[in-house]
Amino acid sequence: MAGAIHAHLSDAASDRPAHATESRGVRIALITAALLFLALIILLPLISVIVEALSQGWRVYVESITEKDALSALRLTLITAAIAVPLNTVFGIAAAWAIAKFKFRGKNVLITLIDLPFAVSPVISGLIFVLLFGAQGLLGPWLAAHDIKIIFALPGIVLATIFVTFPFVARELIPLMQTQGVQEEEAAATLGAKGWQIFWRVTLPNIKWGLLYGIILCNARAMGEFGAVSVVSGHIRGQTNTLPLHVEILYNEYQFTASFAVASLLVLLALVTLVVKAIVEWKSEQRSAGSEGGTG
Amino acid sequence: MKGSRKASVLPGFGLSLGFTVLYLSLIVIIPLASVLIKTAGMSFSEFWAAVTNARVLAAYKLSFLTAFFAAAVNAVFGLLVAWVLVRYRFPGKRLIDSIVDLPFALPTAVAGIALTSIYAPTGWVGSLLEPLGLKIAYTPIGITIALVFIGLPFVVRTVQPVLQDLDKDVEEAAVMLGAYRWRTFRRVILPELIPPLLTGFALAFARGIGEYGSVVFISGNMPMRTEIAPLLIMTKLEQFDYAGATAIALVMLVISFSLLLLINYMQWRYSRRVQAG
Amino acid sequence: MRIEVRNVTKRFGSLKAVDNVSFTIEEGKLIGLLGPSGGGKSTLLRMLAGLETPDEGDIILDGKRVNDVPPQKRGIGFVFQNYALFRHMTVFDNIAFGLEVKKAKKNEIRERVNELLKLVGLEAIGNRYPHQLSGGQRQRVAFARALAPRPSLLLLDEPFAAIDAKVRKELRTWLKEMIEQIGITSIFVTHDQDEAVEVADEMLIFSNGRLEQQGSPLEIYRHPRTPFVASFIGESRVLQHPERLIGFEEAVSQGGKSAIIRPEFVEVGLQRELSYPLSAQRGIVRQSFFRGAHLELEVDVEGNRLIAYRSLDREPLEPGAEVLVFIHRLYVLDGSSAVLVENPLKTDPMPVHI
Fold first, then answer.
1. pLDDT value of residue B7
2. What whole-number percentage of chain C has pLDDT above 70?
3. Which CATH architecture does the domain made up of A58-289 adopt?
4. pLDDT band at A191; cut points 50, 70, 90
5. C263–chain B nearest CA distance, Å
6. Which residues of B touch A199 (CB under 8 A)?
7. Which helix (H) or strand (E) holds C128?
8. A48/B118 Cβ within 8 A
9. Best residue of A104, A114, A123, A267 to probe chain B, by most B CBs closer than 10 Å
10. Is the predicted pLDDT of residue C347 greater than 70, yes or no?
11. Structure letter (DSSP) for residue B178
């Protein structure tokens, strides 16, 4: 699974002569079927969040998202993301640098290890940290003796979030940097540039759009992670609830409108993520349509 | 050691690799190892009892079957969506293409409550189907629909690039030999799409087995009926049955990793064939 | 199959890929469409196949207008430049494809496929997949596949362009023999002159979408009718000052006329070697190249740079040597036609008067 999920729409593939495409009737039928499917499966849920959030009017909406517990949930979500995303970005860059620019044994093993969190259920992702740091966990007694709280506190939430989201930046950068090769960096080295210089001035400009996309995606998942955080957080209102957990609590208390109102913030986040993705794809299309591998 | 290390020209090998391995160990390997350690502490009969009691088996069965059907639905409709996006022109195509990624970007809990509200008996779709005697929310069907939502981008995005890069010549060759659209699709195009379809199916399936957030609201969580395996783990944790939770988790991990290896193997096989051809 | 193309035009955007082209091809001929890239040959070929539609004009196969007939129904075999083999099917299944479409019986299919495998010399590899074959083998499979449904016309789009140079020559000869043996009307597109001249019974020369000339290779070579053909075929060169060449002063004197010459029209040597020494003029050798079978000389004659061949049996000439040059003939072009002009001074040097 190493390799990000990217697609470019080219008009060339869509311009087809009569003998290489279906008849008009078939085309219209297929397009309609596809659009109906998408509308039912994807659009409907999206719209329902917004409709339900505003179903009791604008005032109730604003109240729901500015309520005390909602705000502390937002704060916790932001803090978690602010810690997890940069750490994972550094990891992603380091891993991509090691994998793309050097030859060594065990590269495939490393790449598979990086893909691991995708194969692990979110609940299990939380479970493993409980097993390690929980009261009855392997390190439980030691942590209790030193009065360090990890599970049911911020550190646990951050750890679980890091686990679930760390592949994103790496998976974006690895194929990108592999495709770009080592030539430019080697050229810079022979001209006397030092390590950090090479990275900042040669590599970084080349990978900036992929990096941006990886960060945005990592961030979206970090803020939206539910299952893993649900296991480690303890659901303590006002203290260890992230935004998605708060949505769950409100929903389970039948406060539907408030629940959807808070959820709408996360929807907004998702939409921003999609927009950034579209921009990144457009930019990288421009790039490959234009020069070979120049900066910017 | 073998291999020409380019470390002599480019700096940072030791640092980057070292940091990577350290990070992986701390965040991934050690925590995952705790599952093994914990289950190692159980006797085999304890372990066996934990993973084979009726409730657990029902949960596995539910998770696998719903994930399988959802992935199958996604294989068919994902192919349709990818086909339409690559081969036809219609207004709003770029917008629709972006929307396909929504399940990937949307937090699972939000998807969960949205789907539940739509398919509940009082919901937009649920209320239409209730008079017909069709219940969706709180049944395995509801779970399947949620998993269809989650898995769609996996199929579409693995099929799209392959479809895009298909050689036009081959289709024209089939045409010159007398084939019309259905035969050309069946014998020339579809075989090329089987590998990415399989990969997409496997990805959606793997994701579906472990899915929690988008399913836990719509499923109703009735033991033996609509209780998915991840929820069962969660329940056991809340009851402090760490051993039981861990045992179930181990089984799921083994299956997930096997799937992951299978997917990587399929992708490797496919890229070899493409290069040789 | 007899082919008639009448006033066919095809536009891509504002560009005319094929511009008012008309020609007829008789049954059983092996025709080469030759011309520089972008000349419209492939487009024309694809229009015959039905893979493109003419914007104007008619395509008539065996007396029937086929503009609206889909490619599947035209009974035409097509061989693509990059083979376009079905890569997940064996060689056998590839060749059988067209027969299966026609719903032939299993044993008929087997017979016919084996017949073709034998014809193209690939009996042993029916069970292999395309990626296990060499380029030459793949093209032979493509050929067999196109012929399996017994088409009445065979079209080949630059069939050897993707093949190694060494294999190309063998394959070329093989193809010509095969087609003659089968007797099917065939048209192939190429930008390689040698290929066209060697393989085709008849050539059609295209440039910028227009048909410049149609004829046998020999005819086109000796009697080019348009300036393009004259300069495209053979190793032709435009002369800078043709009026300074003895014997041709008048022929090119009128304004707007230019002249083209080929190495074989130029005789270069010492006085005792020339056929018509009295009508020759002086020149200086500028460069001398060894070309394996002969020597190639670049000679300057009154400001004209001429290429000539010199046999290796004769004394070699070095740069700087003064030589005599006799021009046997050249082509005079006046914008729309090319005329072969013989040197009028080709007379017996020593008439004997008794």
1. 46
2. 97
3. Orthogonal Bundle (1.10)
4. confident
5. 42
6. 12
7. none
8. yes
9. A123
10. no
11. T
Strand ranges (DSSP E) for C13-71? Answer: 15-25, 30-34, 56-61, 64-65
Which residues from B are below 8 Å from A163, CB to CB?
Answer: 27-28, 31
Give C350's pLDDT tier (boundaries 50, 70, 90).
Answer: low
- Among residues A168, A167, A164, which one has the least CA distance to residue A230? A164
Q: Which long-range contacts (CB under 8 A, 24 or more apart) does A22-26 make?
A: A22/B181, A23/B181, A26/B181
The CA–CA distances, whole Å, from C350 to C199, C275, C276 equal 44, 11, 10
What domains are defined for chain B? 44-276 (1.10.3720.10)
Predicted pLDDT at A196: 82
pLDDT, average across residues B89-100: 88
Q: What residue spans define the domains of chain A?
A: 8-53, 58-289
B66 pLDDT more than 90: yes
Mean pLDDT of C54-61: 94
CA torsion angle for B187, B73, B261, B59 (degrees, to 10)?
A: -150
Computed on alpha carbons and rounded to an integer, the radius of gyration of chain C in Å comes to 25
pTM of the model: 0.84
Write down all domains in chain C, each with its CATH number in brackets: 3-223 (3.40.50.300), 232-342 (2.40.50.140)
Give the pLDDT confidence score for residue B10 in this predicted structure. 77
pLDDT at A295: 44
Contact call for residues A163 and A173 (beta carbons, < 8 A) = no
Q: Six-digit token pair at B213? A: 């957030």
Q: Which has more confidence, A96 or A236?
A: A96
Contacts of A23 in chain B (CB under 8 A): 181
Chains that touch A (3 or more CB pairs under 8 A): B, C
Q: What values do phi and psi take at B222, rounded to 5?
A: -85, 120
* Strand partners for C332: C259, C339
| Chain A contact present for C71, CB below 8 A | yes
Which residue do the tokens 């000869």 mark? C173
